[in-house]
Amino acid sequence: MADWTHLLGPLGKTLGAPEAVRAFEAREPGIDAEVRVAADCLVIEGPGKQSLLERFFHRGQSVRIYEVHDPVADSGLLLYRATLRTEGANARGSLEMRCCFPGRGEFFSKGAPIGQVMEGDSDWTDLEIPFLLRQGEIPNLVRLNVMVEGAGRVRVRDVELLFAPLVAAGELTPAAAPEGRGDEAAAT
């Protein structure tokens, strides 16, 4: 998969390959009602055909497939990895990870801004998005979502949440995240 260590800059390096926090079975049901279980994957139907104006104001729907409560993650790179396939000329799908922090709110990382998007009729493709956790930033809940747009369907399998701790974790201090780092604040 992708090497996200360039996001760390002077903050350090990870301690090797990321380790699984939680892997989900293909037949494990999703949380939202829009998610149905098929033989070897989850299936999400798109919102249908939208006018240009609807697409401009409503950029798809965020469908929650799984949640991970109290992941053991501090000072490192949290990775949401899944394999997606889209079906339908107007179908579009990408990953979205939302991390909830006690007393601070919810922050997110989306695949669309970094080019991690499936469109049209596509074959199974591995996607992965990062979320950088600084020292002391410990989420109490991680929501694993799929953004779905257009008419068609998105199939999802091999869903997992991984974590790679930082080597230089003691040198990290919480600070405001510059735009585009994968941890933009969500207005919720």
Q: Say what the CATH topology is.
A: Jelly Rolls
**CATH superfamily name?**
Galactose-binding domain-like
- In the CATH hierarchy, what is the architecture at level 2? Sandwich
Spatial shape? globular
Please compute the radius of gyration using only Cα atoms.
17 Å
**Proportion in β-strands:** over 45%
Largest sheet composition: 6 strands, antiparallel
What order do the SSEs take from the amino end to the carboxyl end, as H and E?
Answer: EEEHEEEEEEEEE
Number of strands: 12
* Computed structural class: mainly beta
Structure description:
The structure is a single chain. It is built from one helix and twelve strands; from the N terminus they run βββαβββββββββ. Strands 1, 2, 3, 5, 9 and 11 form a six-stranded antiparallel sheet that branches. The protein has one helix spanning 52-57; strands spanning 19-23, 35-37, 42-45, 61-69, 76-87, 92-101, 105-110, 117-119, 125-133, 141-149, 153-165, 184-185. The longest helix has 6 residues, at 52-57. It has one domain (15-167): Sandwich (Jelly Rolls). With 188 residues, the protein is mainly beta. Mean pLDDT is 80; it is low at 169-181 and 183-188. It is globular, with a radius of gyration of 17 Å.
